[in-house]
Amino acid sequence: MEFHRFLFYASIILSISVYLFPIMANSMGINYGHIADNLPSPEDVVPIVKSIGATKVKLYDADPKVLKAFANTGVEFIVGLGNEYLDKMRDPAKAQAWVKQNVQSHLPATKITCIFVGNEVLTFNDTSLSNSLLPAMQSVHTALVNLGLDKQVTVTTAHSLSILETSYPPSSGAFREDLVDCLSETLSFHQKTGSPFLINAYPFFAYKGNPKQVQLDFVLFQPNQGVIDPATNLHYDNMLYAQIDAVYNALASLGYKKLPVHISETGWPSKGDEDEVGATPDNAKKYNGNLIKLMSKKTGTPMRPNSDLNIYVFALFNENMKPGPTSERNYGLFKPDGTPAYSLGISSTSNVAGSNTTTGGTNGKPLSPIPTPPSTPTSSSTGYLSISPATGRYEFVGTVLLASLILTKMLLW
Q: Cα dihedral angle (323, 58, 288, 274), rounded to 10 degrees?
């Protein structure tokens, strides 16, 4: 590294530590996308990742430059195998060749712990993709077994939250009926191989879709009255935790109660188009800052209070070449020059909703009644709003553009 560049990044890291030191998080995960032409080199990204306390990184490919740059850093990696590879990966020989080149060659210097095969495949309504998903996952796992790597590297896939038919109340969480058969086979694979279930969850889209009905404080982990699941009496004061527990219940309904759930993507944009309500630096600061603070506490959701959350914040950088609405290019915690997109400082733990998400009292009942928020639609006695319009979200996996439908049918509140 040239001396001047070293001084430049040294000054950046110093400023970052001033901004972020109060909210350093243990076991924090970060999504590292690079659909841009102005990002720092992978070597210069290493200290930036470490400055925020991130110990896990998720890539959408297996970029050798990134994996080599993070060698001997101790940072854990999830690497991606894009949707465009699914058909090829059905061939065990091709899968083994890919694993050799993109995973084995970097071990053990770079700590690769997981391969996610395909991104949100089941919500594309593409039978060719969905029919190739499980065979591709099986071939990649077989390759790991043949190479003696299956004990240290797992195989999974990432799903959109729209695989759920219902999500409110969390206790009624259920998968779409048309996906149950396909999901059941995939879940059996997870159980047999010990791999996690990955879900991408964005409360931002719920708020953007209906800001008059969805309470902003509830989606930003800010203090609010919260809601109570009538079936379990569990109290929820943020939407993300309610979504996660809905996934837990959907899994339990199919007999997979103990399957670990990881949130492979969640975040909030700091800028958006005129119709992207809520995409502001202040809201992004609150969402990501409060979320990271909660992650540092190592507490679980109301349904699983003793389970550590495995969450990957989206994303490390703003990416100027991403297609779609303005928000897509402004999810980063950092600007391309490596400086913070906004401060993530938090005044105090007591101001963060979710710091007491589990219930007290007996039999799972809260210590005191919590009234339904004023913004609850009067037409719904259970306090939720059905949002049906799909929200398009675009993501690159590998080299092919994927139009990801993050929100096709969610039940909120």
A: 10
Query: Catalytic positions, please?
Result: 120, 265
Residue 336 is predicted with a pLDDT of 95
The stretch 255-278 carries a mean pLDDT of 95
Dihedral angle over CA of 343, 349, 355, 356, nearest 10: -150
Query: CATH number, domain at 204?
Result: 3.20.20.80
334's tokens? 């950092």
The residue type at 176 = R
Q: Is 266:183 a contact under the CB 8 Å cutoff?
A: no
The gap from C-alpha 284 to its chain's centroid, in whole angstroms, comes to: 15
Contact 373, 215 (CB under 8 A): yes
- With respect to residue 114, please indicate whether it lies within any of the assigned structural domains: yes
- Please measure the distance between the N-terminal and C-terminal CA atoms of the chain and give it in whole angstroms: 52
pLDDT band at 168 (very low <50, low <70, confident <90, very high): confident
The answer to whether 238 and 161 have CB atoms below 8 angstroms apart is no
Mean predicted confidence (pLDDT) in 2-11: 46
Both tokens assigned to 208: 């953007």
Q: Which two tokens stand for residue 354?
A: 């979710």
Residue 126 lies in a domain: yes
pTM: 0.81
- Encoded tokens for 159: 């799903």
* Residue 1 forms part of a structural domain: no
How many angstroms separate the Cα of 72 from the Cα of each of 9, 13, 68, 109? 20, 20, 9, 5
The DSSP secondary structure of 363-412, one letter per residue, reads TT--SS--PPPTTS-TT-TT--EEE-S-EEEEEEETTEEEEEEEESSEEE
Q: What is the DSSP string of 324-363?
A: SSGGGG---SB-TTSSBSS----S-GGGSTTTT-S--SST
* Helical (H) or strand (E) element with 157: strand 154-160
For residues 47 and 9, what is the distance between their CA atoms, to the nearest angstrom?
9
**Residue 243 CB partners (closer than 8 Å, separation 6+):** 161, 167, 170, 201, 203
Res. 376: pLDDT tops 90: no
Overall number of domains in the chain: 1
Pairing mode of beta strands 164-166, 111-119: unpaired
Domain hosting residue 307, numbered range: 26-334
**Is residue 246, in this structure, part of any structural domain at all?**
yes
Residue 111: phi and psi, rounded to 5, are -85, 80
Query: CB-hemisphere CA count at 13 Å for 208?
Result: 26
